[in-house]
Specification:
This protein is α/β, with parallel strands linked by helices and 330 residues long. It has one domain. 51% of the residues lie in helices and 15% in strands. The protein has helices at 3-10, 12-30, 34-51, 53-66, 72-96, 101-106, 113-120, 137-145, 160-171, 184-192, 225-233, 266-286, 321-329; strands at 108-111, 126-130, 150-154, 176-179, 196-200, 211-215, 218-222, 237-245, 250-255. The strands form 2 sheets. The protein has a 7-stranded mixed sheet with strand order 1-9-8-2-5-3-4, with helices on both faces. A two-stranded antiparallel ribbon has the order 6-7. Mean pLDDT is 88; it is low at 1-8 and 307-322.
Length: 330
C-alpha cells in the first residue's frame, strides 16, 4: 500500500467536505456574470498573497533569485499579480467546465500553429512542452479541439474525489491523463503511434528523479525525461504557452518552433534539457507575472552549482525505476 493510498483512507470525511466545498463554490461562482467571476478569482488570488505568508515568502525569494536587479517593489508587484492569476485560473477552469467544443474553441487564438504541424510532419509523434505560465489548462484542450487528442502527464491530487472531478473536466473532449509514476511506457507507446503527449517540466523534482540544471543562473533539479523520450522516439518537442487575453476572457495559444532531437547520448540529453529550460526561462522573462512563483523551484540543500554537463552523482537514478526500464526496453 502506498503512502498516498494510506492518506486517502485516513481522511475520507475531509475529502468529501472538500469536494462539497468545491462544488458549492463552483455553483455559486457560475451564477455571476463572466466579468465578475474572473474578477472574483483575481481578488481571491490576491487575498491569498496577503494571507498566505509562507507561499508569499517563497514567491519573493524566487523572484529575488531570478531577478536580483529588480527593486523590491517590482518583485512584490509581480508576486501579487502571480497570485491573482492563480485565482483567476481556478475560476476559469470552473467557467469552461461545461462549455461545448465550439464555445471553448471560440475563446482561443492560435499563434504559430504551423510549428505544431511542422513537428507532426516528422511522423514521430509530438511532445508538447510547457510550464505553469498563464492558462496552462487550456494548452491540452487546444489541440483536441482541432482533432488532435493529447495524452498528458499529471500528478494526481491528494483528494481522490476532487481528482475524479478535475479529471472529468480535463478529459471530456477526448484527452487522456497519464499518472506521473511509471508514465514513460505509455508516453512512448503514444508517440510511436504518432500521437501527441504533453509535459510540464518547470517544477522541482526529487534529486532521485532529476539533475541539477542551470535555471535563471541557479541550479534547479529538473527531470531529463522529456529529452530521453525525444531521443528514444525521434519525436520533436514543441514549446507551447497559454497567454490570457482580455482579462482571461480569451487565451492566446503560442506554439514556438519545434526542437528536434540530436544524436543520442548523455550529452544530448543534457543539451536538450538545457535548451528546453532556456525556452521556458525566456517565456517567464516575457510574462513574469504569469508564472507560478509560489512553487519552491530552488530548494535549500541542493548543489550550489550546476555543471555544464549537469552530471548526476552515481547514486542518483535519472527517473523512477519503472521509467528507466520502460525507456531502455522500448
Amino acid at each position: 500500500m502506498t503512502h498516498r493510498n494510506q492518506r486517502r483512507k485516513e481522511h475520507p470525511v475531509r475529502y468529501r467536505l472538500e469536494l462539497g466545498a468545491y462544488r458549492g463554490a463552483k455553483s455559486l461562482v457560475s451564477l455571476l456574470p463572466e466579468t465578475m467571476r474572473l474578477a472574483f478569482g483575481r481578488w481571491g488570488g490576491r487575498m491569498g498573497y496577503l494571507l498566505d505568508a509562507r507561499h508569499r515568502r517563497v514567491a519573493l525569494q524566487n523572484l529575488e533569485l531570478a531577478f536580483p536587479e529588480w527593486p523590491l517593489a517590482s518583485r512584490k508587484r509581480v508576486a501579487r499579480e502571480s497570485f491573482g492569476n492563480i485565482g483567476t485560473a481556478a475560476v476559469e477552469l470552473a467557467t469552461t467546465a461545461k462549455m461545448d467544443r465550439e464555445s471553448y474553441l471560440a475563446r482561443l487564438d492560435f499563434e504559430g500553429w504551423k510549428n505544431f504541424e511542422l513537428a507532426e510532419q516528422a511522423g514521430k509523434g509530438v511532445l508538447l512542452m510547457t510550464a505553469h505560465i498563464g492558462n496552462w489548462e487550456a494548452l491540452a484542450q487546444a489541440p483536441v479541439l482541432r482533432g488532435k487528442p493529447v495524452s498528458f502527464v499529471a500528478r494526481p491530487l491528494d483528494n481522490p474525489y476532487l481528482e475524479r472531478e478535475i479529471r472529468r473536466i480535463r478529459e471530456r473532449f477526448g484527452n487522456r491523463t497519464i499518472m506521473k509514476r511509471g508514465a514513460a511506457r505509455q508516453l512512448i507507446r503514444t508517440l510511436r503511434s504518432g500521437g501527441v503527449t504533453g509535459l510540464l517540466i518547470d517544477q522541482r523534482v526529487h534529486p532521485n528523479e532529476g539533475r541539477a540544471y542551470d535555471f535563471f543562473g541557479h541550479p534547479a533539479y529538473t527531470t531529463p525525461l522529456m529529452a530521453r523520450l525525444s531521443l528514444r522516439t525521434g519525436a520533436p518537442v514543441v514549446p507551447v504557452f497559454g497567454i490570457p487575453l482580455e482579462g482571461w476572457k480569451r487565451c492566446r495559444i503560442v506554439y514556438r518552433p519545434p526542437i528536434f532531437p540530436e544524436t543520442n547520448g548523455e550529452d544530448a540529453v543534457d543539451r536538450l534539457t538545457l535548451q528546453y529550460l532556456r525556452t521556458i526561462e525566456e517565456a517567464i522573462r516575457e510574462w513574469p507575472e504569469l508564472w507560478l512563483w509560489a512553487h519552491r523551484r530552488w530548494r535549500r540543500g541542493q548543489p550550489t552549482e550546476a555543471s555544464p554537463s549537469a552530471e548526476p552523482q552515481p547514486s542518483q537514478p535519472l527517473e523512477s525505476a519503472s521509467d528507466q526500464a520502460s525507456i531502455k526496453a522500448s
